[in-house]
Amino acid sequence: MKIFTFTLFTLCSIFSFSIQAQNSNKVLTPENGEHCGFIASENRLQNNNPYRLSKDQFENWIAPKVEEIKSERLANKTVNSIITIPVVVHVIHNGDDYGVDENITDSQVQSQLTVMTEDFRRMAGTPGYNDNAVGADLEIEFVLAQQTPEGCPTNGINRVDMGREDWSTDDIEDILKPATIWDPTQYMNMWSVVFTRTDLLGYAQFPSSSQLEGLSENEGEASTDGVVCRYNSFGSEDYNDGSFNLTAPYDKGRTMTHEVGHFFGLRHIWGDGDCTVDDYVEDTPDSGSSNTGCPVIDTCTGEEGSEVVYDMVENYMDYTNDECMNIFTEGQKERVFAVLENSPRRKGLVTSNKSEAPDAVDNDVSISFVDIDIPACGSDVSATVQLTNYGTTPLTSLTITSEIADGTTSDYNWTGNLDPEESENVTLPSITVSNTTVTYTISINSPNGETDARTCNNEISEDITLNTVFATTTIINLNLKTDLEASETTWQFLNSNNEVLQEGGGNYFGNLEVTESFEVSGDECYTFVIYDAGGNGICCSNGEGYYTLSTSEGTVIYTGGEFTDEDRINISTKTLSVSDEEYSENIKLYPNPVEDNLNIKFSNATELPTQYQIYNILGQLVKQEKINTATDLKINASELQSGMYFIKLTNSANSVSLRFIKE
Fold it and tell me: Could you tell me the residue range of the domain that residue 643 belongs to?
């Protein structure tokens, strides 16, 4: 396209955006049906960074650099050196097994890089080849990184369990990317995700310009730089080994070819406007709008008798189906080269060595999680890990140490014969956890009885939460207050074999208060389940119901009420080294009732708790803090509303709850 004028419509659009930008720090979400979120991403960057160049400013900056590239190419007819871009792919999942749903396989990931290389290289014999006179080999290839930012070996695929199913563009930018990104000057970061919006295929961060004189670039841009794709459009069906999760017609890998085009500075071929809005590339015909499917169309037909110039629907920067796309043009190549030579982070990719394997060493072993087995009820946790030998000598022995944050450790001496570059899964002996929330750390040392040459891949850790609370008691008491729809409430008390020991409800009425007692034995695990047929719990929609489970001494084990269909709590009566009752006997709360500051006093040298949590009578968590020193035992309660509360104190061996009144 050759037209560089802005219409009144465009100017109005820019003015409209400037008003929106003053009132929002959120992503300006792609409209429904908009496959690519590139414009929304750019709007967000413009909104958050007043120093980022506008579209006009960027084009004024890049235009002379494109002309320099053209001149260089005319003067030098030889083939340029191939540019190799190191890529890290962050596979974001929700704990699914490898190859299930969004936790896509390594081969599906690799197929995406294969397709991008075919498309950017215009490779003969592949779907990325074309015989168009302006078709270009961009001389760019993509490979998975072989080094981590710390210099350890990697396959370039970073699998991350983020503990959630789907992601909005806001949360991707604010949470996901900053938490997972690798140095964007050394890697092209790609993310495979489940989008909240099912019609969104992907989006990219457009390159920034060099720094303006006297103004520095917003560092926030570096924490989000890369390309994002929905998992079932990441990769190509053409290379499916039977393990791929892809959805037609966007199943040939062209979503990422398109988004990487944006990443390297290319715009949509219709310029995101009508036929008078430009994509700043001379050899792409004018286009009035995006195209879908595989049409033969001229969206810029003008006056009667004007020449028909068909849209370049096969261009990777349109919205057509994957199977229709096969071209970048010479003009687009010149623009990409100008970006790679001048954009701050893009030019770092050209010289990055992260596609090269790290130096060879005799002994280097890495460890990664395969699975953590957290029991439904109980305290014995075990992990399956993967060992990979990155050394040049066979691995025959290794010490694996498991550690829980409370100081519990367990060593496992592994023996075997693992050749260089080979991996093996190892299931470790279980380790006993005596708290509901802990950090589980596993480390390796002494490979072949020697020092590991690289320590950056020797330790992994995971925060885990048991679905269990601990109570040393012979009786568990239930105090239940129903909401106004009492007939919807039922409950069950089960043992570790899922046998129902007691149950109730179904015939309750009104705002009923119920008291029950369950006899329990030591070293057993029980489950209390409460159901609400109305699907809105018992606390908040139809009255102020709640339930509390407590020991024979009156110590609160658990309190709740806010749930949907059901709430479930596992209770272990395992005997701990110091009983909860003994621990609680050494704790006093004063003043109680309290108006301002609640003090926690210990009568002897009992171990301080590591944290406290305060729950209201409905079982809702209203305040929690870490406890590092004795000064943290003075709690500001003035912000709490009047009523009854429970404070739960937790240390490495105990978890107790005490009630207090806020006046």
Answer: 470-662
